[in-house]
Amino acid sequence: MEQRLLGARFRYLNEQLYTCTSREAARLFQNGPGWNGRAGGAEGLPQPPRHPRGGPWQVPLEDESVDVAVFCLALMGTNLQEILEEANRVLKLGGTLMVAEVASRFEDTRAFINAMAQLGFKSVSK
Length: 126
Known about the structure:
about 130 residues, alpha+beta, Rossmann fold, two-stranded parallel sheet, 4 helices, 2 strands, about 15% strand
């Protein structure tokens, strides 16, 4: 029964993360009892990342410092534009952004690809 409850909690957390912004997700991890594996004893749930810069979608990397950025089942949240802009910021000129997501993650896949194109990314394969 305990395992089933943990699974339900994880599914609930997942749904919350997909339907809120990164800022709201960070608040859930900070304020929600049992969300971070420590406050409520929910071992096995992911730990929230620490972000020393301005927002929870920002990574502690210098501008144009990486050759490849990868999002693998990680594009959670409703602020995808900000997340893509952050990837664009840390990528070197001519760098590669790889996205591995299930198509159902996006309400409109074409809109997502267009948002990437507006940042200068081109879709090589889908």
